[in-house]
User: Fold this.
Amino acid sequence: MSQSPYASSAWYRPMHARHAGEEHRTASALELFFDLCFVVAVAQASAAFEHEVTAGRLGHGLLGYALVFFAIWWAWMNFTWFASAYDTDDAPYRLLTLVQIGGALLMASGAAEALEHGDFTVITWGYVVMRLAMVSQWLRAACTDQERRRSALRYALGILVLQLGWLLRLVLSHDGGVASFAVLAAGELAVPVWAERAEGTTWHPHHIAERYGLFTLIVLGESVMATAVAVTTALHSHRASGSVLAVAVGGMTTVFALWWLYFAQDAPRRLRTQRTAMLWGYGHYFVFAAAAAVGTALAVNAAHATGSRALTDHQAAATYTVPVALFITCVWLLHRKGTPLSAASDILPPVAALAVLATTFTPFAVLCTGVITSLLIVTSLLVARRAALRDI
Assistant:
Protein backbone atom coordinates (compact mmCIF):
# COMPACT_ATOMS: atom_id res chain seq x y z
CA MET A 1 0.00 0.00 0.00
CA SER A 2 1.42 3.38 -0.92
CA GLN A 3 1.04 6.57 1.00
CA SER A 4 -0.56 9.61 -0.55
CA PRO A 5 2.01 11.97 -2.06
CA TYR A 6 0.61 14.57 0.33
CA ALA A 7 0.98 14.77 4.10
CA SER A 8 -1.84 12.84 5.75
CA SER A 9 -2.62 15.67 8.19
CA ALA A 10 -3.43 18.29 5.53
CA TRP A 11 -6.66 20.19 6.01
CA TYR A 12 -7.10 21.25 2.41
CA ARG A 13 -5.39 21.00 -0.96
CA PRO A 14 -6.58 22.10 -4.39
CA MET A 15 -8.09 19.16 -6.23
CA HIS A 16 -5.81 18.90 -9.23
CA ALA A 17 -5.82 15.82 -11.46
CA ARG A 18 -3.30 13.19 -10.48
CA HIS A 19 -0.88 12.00 -13.15
CA ALA A 20 -2.01 8.86 -15.00
CA GLY A 21 1.57 7.57 -15.02
CA GLU A 22 2.28 8.21 -11.33
CA GLU A 23 4.74 5.64 -10.00
CA HIS A 24 3.97 3.24 -7.16
CA ARG A 25 0.27 4.16 -7.19
CA THR A 26 -1.72 1.66 -5.16
CA ALA A 27 -4.91 1.61 -3.11
CA SER A 28 -4.97 3.98 -0.13
CA ALA A 29 -6.00 3.07 3.41
CA LEU A 30 -9.20 5.08 2.92
CA GLU A 31 -10.09 3.13 -0.21
CA LEU A 32 -9.57 -0.17 1.61
CA PHE A 33 -11.78 1.05 4.46
CA PHE A 34 -14.40 2.12 1.92
CA ASP A 35 -14.38 -1.39 0.43
CA LEU A 36 -14.79 -3.00 3.84
CA CYS A 37 -17.92 -0.93 4.41
CA PHE A 38 -19.25 -1.87 1.00
CA VAL A 39 -18.87 -5.57 1.72
CA VAL A 40 -21.70 -5.13 4.23
CA ALA A 41 -24.03 -4.10 1.40
CA VAL A 42 -22.86 -7.03 -0.75
CA ALA A 43 -23.41 -9.45 2.14
CA GLN A 44 -26.93 -8.11 2.83
CA ALA A 45 -27.90 -8.37 -0.84
CA SER A 46 -26.52 -11.91 -1.05
CA ALA A 47 -28.33 -12.97 2.13
CA ALA A 48 -31.63 -11.57 0.87
CA PHE A 49 -31.13 -13.32 -2.48
CA GLU A 50 -30.49 -16.59 -0.68
CA HIS A 51 -33.68 -16.14 1.33
CA GLU A 52 -35.73 -15.63 -1.82
CA VAL A 53 -34.20 -18.65 -3.55
CA THR A 54 -34.64 -21.02 -0.61
CA ALA A 55 -38.25 -19.81 -0.33
CA GLY A 56 -38.84 -20.94 -3.90
CA ARG A 57 -39.07 -17.45 -5.41
CA LEU A 58 -36.12 -17.82 -7.78
CA GLY A 59 -37.34 -15.46 -10.53
CA HIS A 60 -38.38 -12.72 -8.10
CA GLY A 61 -35.12 -13.05 -6.18
CA LEU A 62 -32.99 -12.92 -9.33
CA LEU A 63 -34.66 -9.73 -10.56
CA GLY A 64 -34.35 -8.05 -7.18
CA TYR A 65 -30.73 -9.12 -6.86
CA ALA A 66 -29.86 -7.69 -10.27
CA LEU A 67 -31.43 -4.32 -9.38
CA VAL A 68 -29.96 -4.07 -5.89
CA PHE A 69 -26.50 -5.16 -7.00
CA PHE A 70 -26.53 -2.53 -9.75
CA ALA A 71 -26.95 0.20 -7.15
CA ILE A 72 -24.14 -1.22 -5.01
CA TRP A 73 -21.77 -1.75 -7.94
CA TRP A 74 -22.38 1.59 -9.59
CA ALA A 75 -21.87 3.62 -6.42
CA TRP A 76 -18.63 1.74 -5.72
CA MET A 77 -17.42 2.08 -9.30
CA ASN A 78 -17.95 5.85 -9.47
CA PHE A 79 -16.05 6.43 -6.24
CA THR A 80 -13.20 4.23 -7.50
CA TRP A 81 -12.68 6.03 -10.80
CA PHE A 82 -13.00 9.47 -9.22
CA ALA A 83 -10.46 8.56 -6.54
CA SER A 84 -8.06 7.34 -9.20
CA ALA A 85 -8.13 10.76 -10.84
CA TYR A 86 -8.61 13.20 -7.93
CA ASP A 87 -7.77 11.64 -4.56
CA THR A 88 -6.30 14.50 -2.50
CA ASP A 89 -6.50 12.68 0.85
CA ASP A 90 -7.21 15.94 2.68
CA ALA A 91 -9.88 16.62 5.28
CA PRO A 92 -12.73 17.62 2.91
CA TYR A 93 -12.09 14.58 0.72
CA ARG A 94 -12.07 12.25 3.71
CA LEU A 95 -15.24 13.76 5.19
CA LEU A 96 -17.14 13.46 1.90
CA THR A 97 -15.94 9.86 1.67
CA LEU A 98 -17.33 9.34 5.18
CA VAL A 99 -20.70 10.60 3.91
CA GLN A 100 -20.50 8.07 1.09
CA ILE A 101 -19.69 5.31 3.56
CA GLY A 102 -22.78 6.33 5.53
CA GLY A 103 -24.81 6.06 2.35
CA ALA A 104 -23.35 2.62 1.69
CA LEU A 105 -24.39 1.42 5.13
CA LEU A 106 -27.86 2.86 4.58
CA MET A 107 -28.03 0.96 1.31
CA ALA A 108 -26.99 -2.19 3.15
CA SER A 109 -29.79 -1.77 5.67
CA GLY A 110 -32.36 -1.46 2.89
CA ALA A 111 -31.06 -4.24 0.64
CA ALA A 112 -33.25 -7.00 2.09
CA GLU A 113 -36.43 -4.91 1.95
CA ALA A 114 -35.72 -3.93 -1.65
CA LEU A 115 -34.91 -7.44 -2.81
CA GLU A 116 -37.61 -9.35 -0.95
CA HIS A 117 -40.50 -6.87 -1.03
CA GLY A 118 -39.63 -4.46 -3.83
CA ASP A 119 -39.46 -1.53 -1.39
CA PHE A 120 -36.53 0.58 -2.59
CA THR A 121 -37.14 3.51 -0.22
CA VAL A 122 -34.21 2.98 2.15
CA ILE A 123 -31.75 1.77 -0.46
CA THR A 124 -32.67 4.70 -2.74
CA TRP A 125 -32.00 7.25 0.01
CA GLY A 126 -28.68 5.58 0.76
CA TYR A 127 -27.77 5.67 -2.91
CA VAL A 128 -28.79 9.32 -3.26
CA VAL A 129 -26.70 10.28 -0.22
CA MET A 130 -23.67 8.66 -1.83
CA ARG A 131 -24.25 10.25 -5.20
CA LEU A 132 -24.87 13.74 -3.83
CA ALA A 133 -21.54 13.49 -2.01
CA MET A 134 -20.03 12.59 -5.37
CA VAL A 135 -21.64 15.71 -6.89
CA SER A 136 -19.80 17.76 -4.25
CA GLN A 137 -16.54 16.07 -5.17
CA TRP A 138 -17.00 16.81 -8.86
CA LEU A 139 -17.88 20.45 -8.17
CA ARG A 140 -14.75 20.74 -6.10
CA ALA A 141 -12.72 19.30 -8.99
CA ALA A 142 -14.38 21.74 -11.40
CA CYS A 143 -13.25 24.68 -9.27
CA THR A 144 -9.57 23.77 -9.27
CA ASP A 145 -8.93 21.69 -12.40
CA GLN A 146 -9.61 24.22 -15.13
CA GLU A 147 -8.35 21.92 -17.89
CA ARG A 148 -11.06 19.35 -17.15
CA ARG A 149 -13.68 21.70 -15.82
CA ARG A 150 -16.25 20.85 -18.49
CA SER A 151 -16.00 17.14 -17.75
CA ALA A 152 -16.32 17.71 -14.01
CA LEU A 153 -19.38 19.93 -14.47
CA ARG A 154 -20.99 17.38 -16.78
CA TYR A 155 -20.49 14.70 -14.15
CA ALA A 156 -21.96 16.91 -11.43
CA LEU A 157 -24.97 17.95 -13.52
CA GLY A 158 -25.72 14.48 -14.82
CA ILE A 159 -25.51 12.85 -11.40
CA LEU A 160 -27.63 15.57 -9.77
CA VAL A 161 -30.43 15.32 -12.32
CA LEU A 162 -30.53 11.55 -12.02
CA GLN A 163 -30.77 11.70 -8.23
CA LEU A 164 -33.92 13.77 -8.61
CA GLY A 165 -35.17 11.03 -10.91
CA TRP A 166 -34.42 8.31 -8.33
CA LEU A 167 -36.33 10.20 -5.66
CA LEU A 168 -39.24 10.80 -8.04
CA ARG A 169 -39.29 7.07 -8.76
CA LEU A 170 -40.23 6.39 -5.14
CA VAL A 171 -43.66 7.93 -5.68
CA LEU A 172 -44.41 5.97 -8.85
CA SER A 173 -46.72 3.00 -8.79
CA HIS A 174 -45.14 -0.42 -8.36
CA ASP A 175 -46.11 -1.36 -11.93
CA GLY A 176 -43.73 1.21 -13.37
CA GLY A 177 -40.92 0.48 -10.95
CA VAL A 178 -38.81 -1.83 -13.09
CA ALA A 179 -39.22 0.27 -16.24
CA SER A 180 -38.27 3.48 -14.42
CA PHE A 181 -35.30 1.71 -12.84
CA ALA A 182 -34.08 0.63 -16.29
CA VAL A 183 -34.40 4.18 -17.65
CA LEU A 184 -32.54 5.75 -14.73
CA ALA A 185 -29.86 3.04 -14.76
CA ALA A 186 -29.29 3.69 -18.47
CA GLY A 187 -28.94 7.38 -17.63
CA GLU A 188 -26.36 6.60 -14.95
CA LEU A 189 -24.34 4.55 -17.41
CA ALA A 190 -24.52 7.32 -19.99
CA VAL A 191 -23.19 10.11 -17.74
CA PRO A 192 -19.50 9.01 -17.81
CA VAL A 193 -19.66 8.52 -21.58
CA TRP A 194 -21.01 12.05 -22.02
CA ALA A 195 -18.70 13.65 -19.46
CA GLU A 196 -15.49 12.02 -20.68
CA ARG A 197 -16.08 13.30 -24.21
CA ALA A 198 -15.38 16.84 -23.03
CA GLU A 199 -11.94 16.09 -21.60
CA GLY A 200 -10.96 12.68 -20.30
CA THR A 201 -10.03 12.35 -16.63
CA THR A 202 -6.60 11.07 -15.62
CA TRP A 203 -7.39 7.71 -14.05
CA HIS A 204 -4.43 5.43 -13.34
CA PRO A 205 -4.55 2.03 -15.18
CA HIS A 206 -2.63 0.04 -12.56
CA HIS A 207 -4.54 1.67 -9.70
CA ILE A 208 -7.89 0.89 -11.34
CA ALA A 209 -6.86 -2.71 -12.01
CA GLU A 210 -5.84 -3.13 -8.38
CA ARG A 211 -9.07 -1.60 -7.07
CA TYR A 212 -11.18 -3.95 -9.20
CA GLY A 213 -9.05 -6.86 -8.10
CA LEU A 214 -9.57 -5.97 -4.45
CA PHE A 215 -13.34 -5.82 -4.89
CA THR A 216 -13.23 -9.18 -6.68
CA LEU A 217 -11.47 -10.58 -3.62
CA ILE A 218 -14.23 -9.17 -1.43
CA VAL A 219 -17.06 -10.81 -3.36
CA LEU A 220 -15.15 -14.08 -3.69
CA GLY A 221 -14.63 -13.87 0.06
CA GLU A 222 -18.39 -14.12 0.44
CA SER A 223 -18.16 -17.47 -1.33
CA VAL A 224 -15.41 -18.63 1.01
CA MET A 225 -17.65 -17.77 3.95
CA ALA A 226 -20.50 -19.72 2.36
CA THR A 227 -18.19 -22.70 1.95
CA ALA A 228 -17.27 -22.51 5.63
CA VAL A 229 -20.95 -22.48 6.52
CA ALA A 230 -21.47 -25.54 4.31
CA VAL A 231 -18.68 -27.41 6.10
CA THR A 232 -20.14 -26.46 9.48
CA THR A 233 -23.54 -27.66 8.36
CA ALA A 234 -22.06 -30.97 7.24
CA LEU A 235 -20.30 -31.52 10.54
CA HIS A 236 -23.42 -30.80 12.59
CA SER A 237 -26.04 -32.40 10.39
CA HIS A 238 -27.05 -36.04 10.47
CA ARG A 239 -28.69 -35.83 7.05
CA ALA A 240 -26.87 -36.05 3.74
CA SER A 241 -23.57 -34.91 5.29
CA GLY A 242 -21.68 -36.53 2.41
CA SER A 243 -23.61 -34.43 -0.10
CA VAL A 244 -22.90 -31.26 1.85
CA LEU A 245 -19.20 -32.08 2.00
CA ALA A 246 -19.26 -32.55 -1.77
CA VAL A 247 -20.76 -29.07 -2.04
CA ALA A 248 -18.10 -27.66 0.28
CA VAL A 249 -15.17 -29.31 -1.54
CA GLY A 250 -16.52 -28.41 -4.96
CA GLY A 251 -17.28 -24.86 -3.85
CA MET A 252 -13.86 -24.21 -2.36
CA THR A 253 -12.13 -25.67 -5.42
CA THR A 254 -14.26 -23.56 -7.74
CA VAL A 255 -13.69 -20.33 -5.84
CA PHE A 256 -9.94 -20.92 -5.85
CA ALA A 257 -10.02 -21.56 -9.60
CA LEU A 258 -12.07 -18.42 -10.22
CA TRP A 259 -9.57 -16.41 -8.18
CA TRP A 260 -6.71 -17.90 -10.20
CA LEU A 261 -8.48 -17.22 -13.48
CA TYR A 262 -9.19 -13.58 -12.66
CA PHE A 263 -5.72 -12.66 -11.40
CA ALA A 264 -3.96 -14.48 -14.22
CA GLN A 265 -5.09 -11.66 -16.54
CA ASP A 266 -3.03 -8.59 -17.40
CA ALA A 267 -5.72 -6.03 -16.59
CA PRO A 268 -3.66 -2.83 -17.11
CA ARG A 269 -3.10 -3.94 -20.71
CA ARG A 270 -6.85 -3.55 -21.32
CA LEU A 271 -6.93 -0.06 -19.79
CA ARG A 272 -5.04 1.83 -22.44
CA THR A 273 -7.88 3.77 -24.08
CA GLN A 274 -11.02 5.41 -22.75
CA ARG A 275 -13.29 3.14 -24.79
CA THR A 276 -11.74 -0.17 -23.76
CA ALA A 277 -11.45 0.97 -20.15
CA MET A 278 -15.12 1.89 -20.05
CA LEU A 279 -16.17 -1.44 -21.53
CA TRP A 280 -13.89 -3.22 -19.08
CA GLY A 281 -15.27 -1.28 -16.14
CA TYR A 282 -18.92 -1.70 -17.11
CA GLY A 283 -18.45 -5.39 -17.86
CA HIS A 284 -17.39 -5.97 -14.29
CA TYR A 285 -20.99 -5.62 -13.17
CA PHE A 286 -21.49 -9.19 -14.37
CA VAL A 287 -18.16 -10.36 -12.94
CA PHE A 288 -18.91 -8.96 -9.48
CA ALA A 289 -22.57 -10.01 -9.48
CA ALA A 290 -21.68 -13.54 -10.60
CA ALA A 291 -18.92 -13.87 -8.00
CA ALA A 292 -21.25 -12.78 -5.21
CA ALA A 293 -24.00 -15.09 -6.49
CA VAL A 294 -21.63 -18.07 -6.30
CA GLY A 295 -21.51 -17.67 -2.54
CA THR A 296 -25.29 -17.47 -2.34
CA ALA A 297 -25.60 -20.58 -4.52
CA LEU A 298 -23.21 -22.52 -2.30
CA ALA A 299 -25.43 -21.83 0.70
CA VAL A 300 -28.53 -22.77 -1.31
CA ASN A 301 -27.00 -26.07 -2.47
CA ALA A 302 -25.77 -26.89 1.03
CA ALA A 303 -29.28 -26.35 2.38
CA HIS A 304 -30.70 -28.40 -0.49
CA ALA A 305 -28.36 -31.28 0.35
CA THR A 306 -29.57 -31.33 3.95
CA GLY A 307 -33.22 -31.69 2.98
CA SER A 308 -34.51 -28.25 1.92
CA ARG A 309 -36.65 -28.91 -1.14
CA ALA A 310 -37.93 -25.50 -2.17
CA LEU A 311 -36.15 -26.08 -5.50
CA THR A 312 -35.72 -29.14 -7.68
CA ASP A 313 -32.27 -30.71 -7.97
CA HIS A 314 -31.68 -29.08 -11.36
CA GLN A 315 -32.87 -25.66 -10.16
CA ALA A 316 -30.58 -25.79 -7.13
CA ALA A 317 -27.67 -26.82 -9.35
CA ALA A 318 -28.44 -24.05 -11.86
CA THR A 319 -28.20 -21.37 -9.16
CA TYR A 320 -24.54 -22.39 -8.92
CA THR A 321 -23.49 -23.42 -12.42
CA VAL A 322 -24.96 -20.36 -14.16
CA PRO A 323 -23.03 -17.70 -12.16
CA VAL A 324 -19.81 -19.74 -12.39
CA ALA A 325 -20.19 -20.02 -16.18
CA LEU A 326 -21.06 -16.31 -16.35
CA PHE A 327 -17.94 -15.37 -14.37
CA ILE A 328 -15.67 -17.46 -16.62
CA THR A 329 -17.26 -16.10 -19.79
CA CYS A 330 -17.14 -12.45 -18.71
CA VAL A 331 -13.50 -12.60 -17.60
CA TRP A 332 -12.67 -14.20 -20.94
CA LEU A 333 -14.56 -11.59 -22.94
CA LEU A 334 -13.11 -8.67 -20.99
CA HIS A 335 -9.52 -9.79 -21.58
CA ARG A 336 -9.47 -11.52 -24.97
CA LYS A 337 -7.53 -9.77 -27.70
CA GLY A 338 -10.24 -9.89 -30.34
CA THR A 339 -8.45 -12.41 -32.52
CA PRO A 340 -10.36 -15.32 -34.15
CA LEU A 341 -11.07 -18.31 -31.93
CA SER A 342 -8.13 -20.39 -33.08
CA ALA A 343 -5.59 -20.49 -30.26
CA ALA A 344 -6.20 -23.08 -27.56
CA SER A 345 -5.84 -20.45 -24.84
CA ASP A 346 -8.75 -18.52 -26.35
CA ILE A 347 -11.01 -21.55 -26.76
CA LEU A 348 -10.59 -23.08 -23.31
CA PRO A 349 -12.67 -20.61 -21.24
CA PRO A 350 -15.90 -20.76 -23.32
CA VAL A 351 -15.59 -24.56 -23.56
CA ALA A 352 -15.19 -24.75 -19.79
CA ALA A 353 -18.20 -22.47 -19.30
CA LEU A 354 -20.35 -24.75 -21.46
CA ALA A 355 -19.08 -27.80 -19.58
CA VAL A 356 -20.01 -26.13 -16.28
CA LEU A 357 -23.54 -25.48 -17.55
CA ALA A 358 -23.79 -29.14 -18.60
CA THR A 359 -23.09 -30.25 -15.02
CA THR A 360 -26.44 -28.76 -14.03
CA PHE A 361 -27.97 -32.10 -15.00
CA THR A 362 -25.52 -34.26 -13.02
CA PRO A 363 -26.04 -35.56 -9.46
CA PHE A 364 -23.08 -33.62 -7.99
CA ALA A 365 -23.07 -30.38 -9.97
CA VAL A 366 -21.03 -28.32 -7.49
CA LEU A 367 -18.30 -30.96 -7.20
CA CYS A 368 -18.21 -31.47 -10.98
CA THR A 369 -17.93 -27.72 -11.45
CA GLY A 370 -14.93 -27.68 -9.13
CA VAL A 371 -13.27 -30.37 -11.21
CA ILE A 372 -13.95 -28.55 -14.50
CA THR A 373 -12.70 -25.16 -13.28
CA SER A 374 -9.57 -26.82 -11.88
CA LEU A 375 -8.95 -28.52 -15.22
CA LEU A 376 -9.38 -25.14 -16.92
CA ILE A 377 -6.56 -23.68 -14.82
CA VAL A 378 -4.25 -26.68 -15.29
CA THR A 379 -4.85 -26.83 -19.04
CA SER A 380 -4.36 -23.07 -19.41
CA LEU A 381 -1.01 -23.32 -17.61
CA LEU A 382 0.12 -26.15 -19.86
CA VAL A 383 -0.91 -24.26 -23.00
CA ALA A 384 0.89 -21.13 -21.79
CA ARG A 385 4.02 -23.14 -21.05
CA ARG A 386 4.02 -24.71 -24.50
CA ALA A 387 3.61 -21.28 -26.08
CA ALA A 388 6.51 -19.92 -24.02
CA LEU A 389 8.78 -22.82 -25.02
CA ARG A 390 7.83 -22.36 -28.67
CA ASP A 391 8.84 -18.67 -28.52
CA ILE A 392 12.30 -19.42 -27.12
Q: What stands out?
A: The chain has a mean pLDDT of 88. The first helix runs from residue 29 to 54. The chain has twelve helices and no strands. The radius of gyration is 22 Å.
